[in-house]
C-alpha cells in the first residue's frame, strides 16, 4: 500500500515551483485557467471557489487573490466561458453556479441535478454549459433558461467529461466511455469499453478532435483514436508507478501550443508526454502529497497543479496537521513540452 511518510513530508515543493497564496483550507478539487488571461480559479472541499490573477516577469511569477464565492457544500469542478468573462462551478450541493468574475457580479444558480455535479464544460460552438453528475445524466444548459435544453441519460455515474467541439467524451462508472458528436448531441456517437482494466479517473479530448486520452486508478493512460482506420495508433502506457506501488492518474492536460500533454497522479508527480512519438519528455520530482488536479494557462507557459490529500485512502488517513493544501505554478521549459522530431529508422 502506498504511503507518504514523514520523510517525504519534508519535501512539499521539490520542483521549486511558485506557490499561490493564500492556500485553500481544504483539499483542492479542480484548477481552471481562463482561456484569455492568466486568471486561475480553484475549487475546494471547503465549499469555496477562489480566483487569483497571475503575473509573470521573466522567470518570476506573482499571484494576487481577486475574489471568492461559496457553495453550500464541497465544490468539485469548474469551467470558464470561452470569452474569459465567466466561471462556472459545481459540486456536492447538486447545483452549478455562474459567476461573472470579470465584472465582479454575484453568482447565480444555472443548473441543477439530483446528485453531485462532478464535471462540466462550456461548449463555445453552442453557447451551452454541459454538466455531468452522479445522477447518471448529462445536462445541457442555456444559462438564460431554468430548465435544461436537453437531458442525456448515461449508463452509469459520470466521473469525467471533456469537450473539443464537436467532440464530447464522457467517462462513467463501469469503465464506459461514451462519445458524442455535438452536431447531434441527443444520440450516442460511439460507446467504448475503456482500454484500461480499472476505474476511469479522467478523460480529455485530443485538440484535433480525433480521439481522447483516458486515465485510471491503476497508473495507466490509454490513447484512443475514433477513426476505425487509426486503431493501429491506439496504445496504453504505465505511469505514476513506483516499483510495486500503483497510483491513480488524476489529471490529463494537453499543452495548448505543442499538442503534448501532462499527467498528474496520486504519487505526487507530474510528467510531460508526447503521444505521437510515444515518449516521456520530462519526469518531475514527486511532491509529498498527491496531485488531484492541474491546468495549463492559455499559451502553455504556466502549468498549475495542486498538492494535497486526495481522499483516496479515506478520512481515517487524513491528518489536517500535516495535510496542507497547496497550489503551485511551474513554468515549463520548451524542452519539457515540445515534441521531439521523430528519428527515421532507415528501414523499409
Automatic annotation (TrEMBL):
Segments of skewed composition (Low complexity): 1-15
Family matches, as InterPro entries: WD40/YVTN_repeat-like_dom_sf, WD40_PAC1, WD40_repeat_dom_sf, WD40_rpt
Protein name: (rape) hypothetical protein
Swiss-Prot/TrEMBL keywords: Repeat, WD repeat
SMART domains: WD40
Residue stretches of each WD repeat: 21-62, 68-109, 110-151, 249-283
SUPFAM superfamilies named in the record: WD40 repeat-like (SSF50978)
GO MF terms, alphabetically ordered: RNA binding; ubiquitin binding
BP GO annotations: RNA export from nucleus; transcription-dependent tethering of RNA polymerase II gene DNA at nuclear periphery
UniProt xrefs under Pfam families: WD40 (PF00400)
Region (Disordered): 1-22
Coiled coil location: none
Organism: Brassica napus (Rape)
GO cellular component, one term: nuclear pore
Repeat found in the keyword field: yes
Amino acid at each position: 500500500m502506498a504511503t507518504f511518510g514523514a520523510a517525504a513530508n519534508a519535501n512539499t515543493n521539490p520542483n521549486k515551483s511558485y506557490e499561490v497564496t493564500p492556500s485553500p483550507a481544504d483539499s483542492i478539487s479542480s484548477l481552471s485557467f481562463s482561456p484569455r488571461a492568466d486568471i486561475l480559479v480553484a475549487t475546494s472541499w471547503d465549499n469555496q471557489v477562489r480566483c487569483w490573477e497571475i503575473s509573470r516577469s521573466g522567470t518570476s511569477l506573482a499571484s494576487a487573490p481577486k475574489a471568492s464565492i461559496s457553495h453550500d457544500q464541497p465544490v468539485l469542478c469548474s469551467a470558464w466561458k470561452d470569452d474569459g468573462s465567466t466561471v462556472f462551478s459545481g459540486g456536492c450541493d447538486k447545483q452549478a453556479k455562474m459567476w461573472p468574475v470579470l465584472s465582479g457580479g454575484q453568482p447565480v444558480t444555472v443548473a441543477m441535478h439530483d446528485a453531485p455535479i462532478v464535471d462540466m464544460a462550456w461548449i463555445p460552438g453552442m453557447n451551452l454549459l454541459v454538466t455531468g453528475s452522479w445522477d447518471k445524466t448529462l445536462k445541457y444548459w442555456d444559462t438564460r433558461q431554468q430548465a435544461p435544453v436537453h437531458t442525456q441519460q448515461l449508463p452509469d455515474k459520470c466521473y469525467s467529461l471533456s469537450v473539443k467541439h464537436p467532440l464530447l467524451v464522457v467517462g462513467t462508472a463501469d469503465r464506459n466511455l461514451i462519445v458524442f458528436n455535438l452536431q447531434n448531441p441527443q444520440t450516442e456517437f460511439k460507446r467504448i469499453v475503456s482500454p484500461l482494466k480499472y476505474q476511469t479517473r479522467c478523460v480529455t479530448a485530443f485538440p484535433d478532435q480525433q480521439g481522447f486520452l483516458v486515465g485510471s486508478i491503476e497508473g495507466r493512460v490509454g490513447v484512443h483514436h475514433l477513426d476505425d482506420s487509426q486503431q493501429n495508433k491506439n496504445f496504453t502506457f504505465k505511469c505514476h508507478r513506483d516499483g510495486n506501488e500503483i497510483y491513480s492518474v488524476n489529471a490529463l492536460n494537453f499543452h495548448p501550443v505543442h499538442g503534448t500533454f501532462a499527467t498528474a497522479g496520486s504519487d505526487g508527480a507530474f510528467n510531460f508526454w508526447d503521444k505521437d512519438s510515444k515518449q516521456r519528455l520530462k519526469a518531475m520530482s514527486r511532491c509529498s502529497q498527491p496531485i488531484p488536479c492541474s491546468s495549463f494557462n492559455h499559451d502553455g507557459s504556466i502549468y498549475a497543479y495542486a498538492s494535497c490529500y486526495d481522499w483516496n485512502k479515506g478520512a481515517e488517513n487524513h491528518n489536517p496537521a500535516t495535510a496542507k493544501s497547496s497550489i503551485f505554478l511551474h513554468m515549463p521549459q520548451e524542452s519539457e513540452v515540445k515534441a521531439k522530431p521523430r528519428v527515421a529508422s532507415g528501414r523499409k
